[in-house]
Design a protein that fits this description.
Layout (H helix, E strand, L loop, with lengths): L2 H17 L6 H8 L3 H7 L3 H24 L5 H18 L2 H10 L1 H28 L9 H16 L6 H5 L1 H15 L2 H9 L1 H8 L1
Helix pairs in contact: 1-4, 4-5, 4-7, 5-7, 6-7, 7-8
């Protein structure tokens, strides 16, 4: 994908997150970009193609960041904190109306992106679980696949829940409790010792 197209997708993504997808027409996009609609159609077949490429571009961007985190020299608990910080930012940037529009008007795209996102997230969480067991920071009797699936379910439900407001989810108190709830269910005694000794540093990571 060339830089021109990537720049367009980034700008359109901002429009969709701010106003939703349905209300942003191709005329709006062309006007915002300062180009003609004819030029816009040189890059995208139609609005569905544009929406699809925006969603895929955003997904790839998020998971490049996850890959960067995985390449850092962190143990499993440290890595999980950095990943959670990234997830928290994703939740802060999330626009429910955008998801609603995707599900209602582009259900095939919604299912496709959800499956891609779920697969990549599953693999990242599973790798963290395996690493934590190898480092003896997580319980050695941990059923990594079951816990990974449960954890993924929790993350997905955070985004699509009606029990907590957006402000509550973005607060340190709620996010901290969600994170610690998960950690204390999987850590070994060694992991708990490491976590408690480094708690202040980790707290700063989540705030």
């Amino acid at each position: 994908m060339n830089d021109k197209v990537q720049g367009i997708l980034k700008q359109v993504g901002k429009l969709y997150h701010r106003y939703g997808i349905k209300s942003v027409t191709m005329d709006d996009v062309a006007s915002h970009l300062g180009i003609s609609k004819k030029t816009l159609y040189e890059y995208f077949e139609d609005k569905k193609d544009l929406v699809s490429q925006v969603l895929r571009s955003e997904h790839d961007s998020h998971f490049r960041e996850f890959d960067d985190i995985l390449r850092r020299n962190l143990n499993a608990i440290e890595e999980l904190f950095v990943i959670y910080k990234h997830i928290k930012r994703m939740i802060q940037d999330h626009n429910p109306s955008m998801d609603y529009d995707i599900r209602k008007y582009y259900p095939d795209l919604y299912m496709k992106i959800r499956e891609i996102r779920r697969k990549d997230m599953f693999n990242n969480v599973l790798m963290n679980m395996v690493r934590g067991k190898e480092e003896s920071l997580y319980r050695d009797d941990l059923n990594t696949e079951v816990i990974t699936r449960l954890h993924l379910l929790r993350i997905e439900n955070l985004v699509e829940n009606d029990l907590f407001s957006a402000d509550e989810l973005n607060s340190f108190e709620i996010f901290h409790e969600i994170f610690v709830y998960h950690l204390y269910g999987i850590m070994s005694n060694k992991g708990r010792d490491f976590f408690e000794k480094n708690f202040d540093k980790f707290r700063e990571t989540l705030e």
